[in-house]
């Protein structure tokens, strides 16, 4: 399915919700889109408490958006644990995607902390053997 996010303050991506109603699965009038939100490193997980049950995905940025090949922000692992706990406590079915600084050292840590999807652009595309890197990432699946 397609995901629909809207950019909000501080660069965070926010979806538009109806009056507490799930709009056709938040599919924007039957378009089949899914609801997602992006949290930048400075945005706390608690911002999602009132909407987590409406989300299909949360993209957690582990770098500040805008530049490739940045270093992973270490506080992301603790933030990921908090997000996974919020999802489980709320009964949400949202998946967690982590984007930024993913490599051989950080990937196992974020998967262990609760990530479902990893974005590993620089790690894959700068590798001498991208297929091998992709295979190693796939082996981390829960």
Written account of the structure:
This protein has 142 residues and is of the alpha/beta class. The protein is built from 4 helices and 7 strands; from the N terminus they run βββββαβαβαα.
Please tell me what the overall shape is: globular
Helical proportion?
A: 25-40%
State the total count of DSSP E strands.
7
What is the CA-based Rg, rounded?
Answer: 15 Å
Most strands sheet: 5 strands, parallel
Q: Largest beta sheet: what is the strand line-up?
A: 1-4-5-6-7
Structural class: alpha/beta
In percent, how much strand structure appears in the residues? 15-25%
First-to-last CA distance: 22 Å
**Average pLDDT over all residues:** 82
Low confidence ranges: 1-29
Helix/strand order? EEEEEHEHEHH
Count of DSSP H/I helices: 4
Chain-wise SSE layout:
Blueprint: E1 2-4, E2 6-7, E3 13-14, E4 33-39, E5 57-61, H1 76-90, E6 95-99, H2 106-113, E7 117-119, H3 121-125, H4 130-138
Short structural description:
β2 and β3 (13-14) form a beta hairpin. The model is unreliable at 1-29 (pLDDT under 50). This protein is 26% helix and 19% strand.
What are the main properties of this structure?
4 helices, 142 residues, two-stranded antiparallel sheet, alpha/beta, 5-stranded parallel β-sheet, single chain
């Amino acid at each position: 399915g397609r995901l629909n996010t809207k950019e909000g303050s501080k660069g965070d991506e926010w979806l538009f919700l109806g009056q507490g109603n799930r709009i056709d699965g938040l599919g924007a009038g039957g378009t089949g889109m899914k609801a997602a939100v992006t949290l930048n490193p400075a945005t706390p997980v608690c911002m999602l408490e009132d909407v987590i049950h409406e989300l299909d995905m949360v993209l957690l940025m582990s770098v500040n958006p805008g530049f490739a090949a940045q270093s992973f922000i270490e506080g992301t692992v603790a933030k990921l644990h908090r997000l996974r706990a919020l999802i489980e406590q709320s009964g949400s079915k949202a998946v967690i995607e982590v984007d930024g600084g993913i490599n051989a050292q950080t990937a196992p840590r974020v998967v262990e902390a609760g990530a479902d999807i990893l974005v590993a652009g620089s790690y894959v595309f700068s590798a001498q053997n991208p297929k091998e890197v992709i295979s190693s990432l796939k082996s981390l699946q829960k």
